[in-house]
Protein backbone atom coordinates (compact mmCIF):
# COMPACT_ATOMS: atom_id res chain seq x y z
CA UNK A 1 0.00 0.00 0.00
CA UNK A 2 1.14 3.50 -0.63
CA UNK A 3 -0.58 6.84 -0.78
CA UNK A 4 -1.99 9.44 1.53
CA UNK A 5 -2.76 8.18 5.03
CA UNK A 6 -5.56 10.11 6.73
CA UNK A 7 -6.30 9.06 10.28
CA UNK A 8 -7.56 10.33 13.60
CA UNK A 9 -6.29 9.01 16.91
CA UNK A 10 -8.02 8.82 20.30
CA UNK A 11 -7.34 7.67 23.83
CA UNK A 12 -9.54 4.71 24.80
CA UNK A 13 -11.67 4.80 27.92
CA UNK A 14 -10.65 2.11 30.43
CA UNK A 15 -14.21 1.74 31.78
CA UNK A 16 -15.65 0.51 28.45
CA UNK A 17 -15.75 -3.10 27.23
CA UNK A 18 -14.40 -2.51 23.71
CA UNK A 19 -12.65 -5.91 23.37
CA UNK A 20 -15.96 -7.77 23.04
CA UNK A 21 -16.63 -5.71 19.88
CA UNK A 22 -13.34 -6.71 18.21
CA UNK A 23 -13.50 -8.87 15.08
CA UNK A 24 -9.81 -9.83 15.32
CA UNK A 25 -6.63 -9.40 17.31
CA UNK A 26 -2.99 -9.57 16.22
CA UNK A 27 0.37 -9.18 17.95
CA UNK A 28 2.62 -6.46 16.53
CA UNK A 29 6.28 -5.70 17.16
CA UNK A 30 7.90 -2.85 15.30
CA UNK A 31 11.31 -1.25 15.22
CA UNK A 32 12.57 1.98 13.70
CA UNK A 33 15.61 3.04 11.68
CA UNK A 34 17.51 6.31 11.95
CA UNK A 35 16.05 8.47 9.17
CA UNK A 36 14.72 11.93 8.37
CA UNK A 37 11.26 10.42 7.83
CA UNK A 38 9.72 7.54 9.77
CA UNK A 39 11.12 4.22 8.54
CA UNK A 40 9.96 1.10 10.35
CA UNK A 41 9.89 -2.66 10.10
CA UNK A 42 6.87 -4.44 11.54
CA UNK A 43 6.16 -8.04 12.43
CA UNK A 44 2.42 -8.66 12.65
CA UNK A 45 1.78 -12.24 13.73
CA UNK A 46 3.63 -14.18 11.00
CA UNK A 47 4.04 -11.46 8.35
CA UNK A 48 6.63 -8.73 7.79
CA UNK A 49 6.17 -5.15 6.55
CA UNK A 50 8.51 -2.31 5.63
CA UNK A 51 6.96 1.16 5.92
CA UNK A 52 8.15 4.69 5.19
CA UNK A 53 6.04 7.62 6.36
CA UNK A 54 6.49 11.22 5.30
CA UNK A 55 6.02 14.28 7.48
CA UNK A 56 2.56 14.97 8.90
CA UNK A 57 0.39 17.77 7.62
CA UNK A 58 -2.83 19.42 8.76
CA UNK A 59 -2.16 18.97 12.47
CA UNK A 60 -1.08 15.35 12.16
CA UNK A 61 -4.20 14.28 10.23
CA UNK A 62 -2.52 13.35 6.92
CA UNK A 63 0.79 12.09 5.59
CA UNK A 64 2.23 10.05 2.75
CA UNK A 65 2.76 6.37 3.53
CA UNK A 66 4.62 3.70 1.54
CA UNK A 67 4.25 0.12 2.75
CA UNK A 68 5.37 -3.23 1.33
CA UNK A 69 4.95 -6.79 2.56
CA UNK A 70 8.28 -8.54 3.17
CA UNK A 71 9.00 -12.05 4.39
CA UNK A 72 8.97 -12.83 8.10
CA UNK A 73 12.66 -13.77 7.87
CA UNK A 74 13.54 -10.42 6.26
CA UNK A 75 11.58 -8.57 8.94
CA UNK A 76 13.32 -10.50 11.73
CA UNK A 77 16.74 -9.68 10.25
CA UNK A 78 15.84 -6.00 9.79
CA UNK A 79 14.65 -5.80 13.43
CA UNK A 80 18.24 -6.53 14.43
CA UNK A 81 19.33 -3.34 12.64
CA UNK A 82 16.76 -1.08 14.32
CA UNK A 83 17.47 1.56 16.91
CA UNK A 84 16.71 0.64 20.54
CA UNK A 85 13.09 0.77 21.67
CA UNK A 86 10.84 -1.80 20.02
CA UNK A 87 7.09 -1.10 20.13
CA UNK A 88 5.14 -4.13 21.36
CA UNK A 89 1.34 -4.13 21.21
CA UNK A 90 -1.80 -6.07 20.45
CA UNK A 91 -4.07 -4.60 17.77
CA UNK A 92 -7.79 -5.20 17.86
CA UNK A 93 -9.98 -4.41 14.85
CA UNK A 94 -13.34 -3.03 15.96
CA UNK A 95 -15.94 -2.45 13.23
CA UNK A 96 -18.39 0.35 14.00
CA UNK A 97 -20.99 1.91 11.73
CA UNK A 98 -19.07 1.67 8.45
CA UNK A 99 -15.55 2.21 9.79
CA UNK A 100 -12.98 -0.04 11.41
CA UNK A 101 -11.22 1.27 14.49
CA UNK A 102 -7.73 -0.11 15.17
CA UNK A 103 -7.35 -0.30 18.93
CA UNK A 104 -3.76 -0.75 20.13
CA UNK A 105 -3.08 -2.08 23.62
CA UNK A 106 0.59 -1.40 24.38
CA UNK A 107 3.01 -3.53 26.40
CA UNK A 108 6.48 -3.13 27.90
CA UNK A 109 7.51 0.46 28.63
CA UNK A 110 4.21 1.68 27.12
CA UNK A 111 2.05 -0.62 29.28
CA UNK A 112 -1.25 0.96 30.30
CA UNK A 113 -1.72 2.97 27.11
CA UNK A 114 -4.61 2.09 24.80
CA UNK A 115 -5.14 4.10 21.61
CA UNK A 116 -7.72 3.88 18.82
CA UNK A 117 -7.21 5.07 15.24
CA UNK A 118 -9.66 5.35 12.39
CA UNK A 119 -8.50 5.72 8.78
CA UNK A 120 -10.55 8.05 6.64
CA UNK A 121 -10.98 8.63 2.91
CA UNK A 122 -10.75 12.42 3.28
CA UNK A 123 -9.78 14.88 5.99
CA UNK A 124 -13.38 16.04 6.41
CA UNK A 125 -15.04 12.61 6.32
CA UNK A 126 -17.68 12.21 9.01
CA UNK A 127 -17.72 9.07 11.16
CA UNK A 128 -19.70 7.76 14.10
CA UNK A 129 -17.73 7.57 17.35
CA UNK A 130 -18.13 4.48 19.53
CA UNK A 131 -18.52 5.15 23.26
CA UNK A 132 -15.05 3.79 24.07
CA UNK A 133 -13.36 6.72 22.30
CA UNK A 134 -12.06 9.39 24.63
CA UNK A 135 -9.87 12.44 24.10
CA UNK A 136 -8.62 13.01 20.57
CA UNK A 137 -4.81 13.03 20.37
CA UNK A 138 -4.38 13.33 16.58
CA UNK A 139 -1.15 15.23 15.94
CA UNK A 140 0.13 14.96 19.53
CA UNK A 141 3.65 13.60 19.05
CA UNK A 142 3.61 11.90 22.47
CA UNK A 143 1.31 9.30 20.92
CA UNK A 144 3.35 8.56 17.77
CA UNK A 145 4.77 5.04 17.96
CA UNK A 146 8.07 6.35 16.61
CA UNK A 147 8.26 8.76 19.57
CA UNK A 148 7.08 6.28 22.21
CA UNK A 149 10.02 3.99 21.49
CA UNK A 150 12.39 6.78 22.64
CA UNK A 151 10.12 8.42 25.20
CA UNK A 152 7.84 5.66 26.50
CA UNK A 153 4.48 6.17 28.17
CA UNK A 154 5.84 5.15 31.59
CA UNK A 155 7.87 8.41 31.64
CA UNK A 156 4.95 10.76 30.97
CA UNK A 157 1.79 8.81 31.88
CA UNK A 158 0.93 11.40 34.56
CA UNK A 159 -0.03 13.95 31.85
CA UNK A 160 -2.85 11.62 30.74
CA UNK A 161 -6.12 11.80 32.72
CA UNK A 162 -6.64 8.91 35.14
CA UNK A 163 -9.56 7.38 33.20
CA UNK A 164 -7.19 6.58 30.32
CA UNK A 165 -4.32 5.00 32.31
UniProtKB/TrEMBL annotation:
Pfam families, A to Z: CYTH
PANTHER family named in the record: SLR0698 PROTEIN
Protein name (record): CYTH domain-containing protein
Species annotation: Prevotella jejuni
Amino acid sequence: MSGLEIERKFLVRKDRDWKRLASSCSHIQQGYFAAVNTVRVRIRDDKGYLTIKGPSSNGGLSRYEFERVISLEEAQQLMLLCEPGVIDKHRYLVPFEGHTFEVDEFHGDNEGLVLAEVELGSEDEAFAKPDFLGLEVTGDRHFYNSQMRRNPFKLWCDIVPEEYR
